[in-house]
Amino acid sequence: MDVANQDATAPAVSIVIPTWNAIESLLKCLKSVGAHTPWPRYEVIVVDNGSTDQTGPLLSRLSFVRVLSNATNVGFARACNQGAAIARAPMLLFLNDDAQPQMDWLPPLIMALEQDANVGLASAKLVRPDSRIEQAGYALAYATPYPLSPLPLFRRRPFAALTQTRTFAAVTATCLLLRKSLFQELGGFDEGFINGMEDVDLCLRAKERNLASVVVASSLVIHEPRFPAERLAFSKQNMERLNQRWRPQELALDFDFRRFATVTTDSSVRPPLSIVAVAQDALTSGAACVEHLLAYAQANDEVIVVDDTSSAAFSGWAKSRMQSDQRLRHLASSCTVGFLEAAREGLKSAQNSRVMVIPTTLRIGADCLDVSLTEAIDQKPNGLVFLRTRPSGNHSPLGPYEPRRPTSKNERDNQVGLNQEAEIASGAFAGDQKVVVEALSRLADEDSPNALAMALRASGIPFQVATSASVRSFAECDTVARSPSQRPLDDVDGLKAVVMIRVYAADRLQGCLRMLYAAGVREDDIWLLLSPELTAAPQVLDAIEETQGTRRVAQKETAVAETINGILQKSSADIFILLDEEMLLPRVSTETLFDHFRSESKLALLGPTLNVSRGEQVASQTVAPHTANGLALRLSWQNRHQRRNTLHLEPACLFGRRKTLLQLGLNQANGGRGVGC
User: Fold this and answer.
1) 3-state secondary structure 213-230
2) Which of 3, 141, 272, 608 makes an SS bond possible with 352, Cβ 3.0 to 4.6 Å?
3) Strand 302-307 and strand 328-332: pairing?
4) C-beta of residue 429 within 8 angstroms of C-beta of residue 385
């Protein structure tokens, strides 16, 4: 190791490395620092958090390292504060012991601070050993699933995805440089955070002083992260602390799906419903659950959140959210009473005759609150309707689920109907208010929803499971990355698809993307055709891109037709899908169109029924966004295998064979806005 540049009298940077039982990683880190930091002068301070391996004896033999030894593991934040307290340089660099800086990594970080007085913190570009990006900054998101959720950006993206210095809401302390004076003014890391979120909190405190946090792409650090159980054990506690401190501040959010959601205001679709959402330790999922309920509820519905002594952060969020939506009410318990008693309390205050009970650990589907639910209740008014539990999968808490496609003739003929009696344990059920209260009175507080089903069977009260309404547990959701929830389209009969979305304002892009992923479209099969006049903030597109997954973006100043032709020439897909960003394409519609291509090899172009068309594709009835999934499912089976020829198809949603369009060519004169058949 080269330590010749170590001038203990005048270091420019103090590198603080907390460590705990990671001797192999620490050795790699120290060797990388020495080999790849020829300039400037620096000192290394290692804070040993009570390691029980050979870390202590090793450090005692390294004369160029200043060592602080703690008797116990005091956590990352306190260890960093201890190292900063004895630092002699005007700049502090915090470095994880599992990070390996690469050649000339430090000067770009220093230059980022010195060249722009508005930059307060600078972090390096972190990459995995396979050259994919580990992380590059955080975006602040709403209800994904916490009320305030820091989302790591550029995760698992290709190395070339980040080539310039970027400003983010926060950056990671895996490799973090800032002036010592600023660190002291901010009060250092908050030691109330235990191995997580202390870096986000520090960046937000700097942001209050109008100081930005940046990731410097020219500073490269390889990161091989370790996630010991001790660190993960405090993640929930850390998010509670972060939300309690920063959610009331009403920070500017990079991503808020309420900006893209279409809230139902029509009160004539079905009779009004009272929804009782029981919140128990609800910070992790409560905000996302309630937002889904509000998004799909009618204007004359009510959502009653019964707070069974949840966290202070969740209670504060619920009270604040209640001020902005008159449909929401918040009832707080003075002590923990349990799920069933909390549900009873909520039902007492319900103002509608039809009610639903749901724990906030569940996420509803878009089909849960449509007319089929009240139809199911009305079919047997003296019974209960349980909501079906979806099978496990990998999902984001954003966006609706697609209804399950019927697999039997009985289900196809009776889509709105009910399955036979069954026992389920989802915890979500609906019915007439008096019937639900009577059913809950038969159970002890510790009994489960599955016990309710058995008690109902024993007492003779009818119950059934609605086939058209589904829920999923948040424990089965992936809250960071959005992955296809079902079998990809190109896994069936060898057909592959490439999707091109024309983006004009980005205000509806989120809904379009989430429906495509639910339909099984792969992330890297999607191209975004960004309009030259696009005025959306870059942060909005970044947030959408990161929460939905990796995909390629085509951004050209030329006409749309030329861009589309270029993509089709590069692609190896069999089928192309051309969409406008406001199109919501249910999975069943996509599968139906693909079935037509599979069954007839000479078929060139297809278009679905549209509620925005003025021609032959116009829908026969008005479609509300919250009922699009269920309606598409029913129409597809009522009209399956039916189609009609036309001389014109709307380009707002167009399916076709790639080779056919390449042979014909897309008309450049109309910019791709019309397709003749």
Assistant:
1) EEEEEEEEEEECCCCCHH
2) 272
3) parallel
4) yes
Please, where are the H alpha helices in 441-508? Answer: 449-459
Q: Round to the nearest angstrom and report the end-to-end CA distance of the chain.
A: 70
Mean local confidence (pLDDT), 424-440: 81
Q: Which of 191, 213, 230, 203 is nearest to 50 (CA)?
A: 230
Strand runs labelled E in 581-643:
605-606
pLDDT digit string, tens, across residues 543-557: 555 544 445 555 544
DSSP string, 250-285: -PPPSB-GGGT------S-SS--EEEEEEESS-TTT
| Cβ–Cβ < 8 Å for 158, 132 | yes
Residue found under tokens 């024993």:
458
Element holding 379 (H helix, E strand): helix 371-379
Residue 558's Cβ-count burial label (10 Å; 0-12, 13-18, 19+) is exposed
Phi, then psi, of 174 in degrees rounded to 5: -55, -40
Report helix, strand or coil for 359: strand
- Residue 614 banded pLDDT, cuts 50, 70, 90: very low
Rounded Cα–Cα distance for residues 675 and 677 (Å)? 6
Residue 371 corresponds to which tokens in the numbers above?
């007319």
Q: Helix/strand/coil (H, E, C) string of 308-344?
A: CCCCHHHHHHHHHHHCCCCCEEEEECCCCCCHHHHHH
Per the CB < 8 A criterion, the answer to whether 75 and 165 are in contact is: no
Question: Could you tell me the pLDDT band of residue 260, with boundaries at 50, 70 and 90?
Answer: low
249, 138 contact by CB (below 8 A): no
Between strands 648-649 and 675-676, the pairing is: antiparallel
Q: In degrees to the nearest 10, what's the CA dihedral of 559, 562, 563, 564?
A: 120
Percent over 90 (pLDDT), the chain: 34
Residue given tokens 């990352």 in the structure block: 76
Query: Residue 562: helix, strand or coil by DSSP?
Result: helix
Greater model confidence, 20 or 440: 20
Look up tokens 């060519």; give the residue.
665
Give me the mean pLDDT over the 577-593 stretch. 79
Nearest to 67 by CA among 55, 75, 52, 78: 55
Place of tokens 């159970």: 443
Q: Cβ of 552: how many Cβ atoms within 10 Å?
A: 13
| Range among 211-225, 296-310, 316-330 rated most confident | 211-225
Asked if the model's pLDDT at residue 410 lies above 60, the reply is: no
Q: Give me the residue label for tokens 């895996």.
A: 174
Between the CA atoms of 417, 421, 426 and 432, what dihedral angle is there, to the nearest 10 degrees?
70
pTM, whole model, 2 decimals?
Answer: 0.67
Q: Are 206 and 174 a contacting pair, CB within 8 Å?
A: no
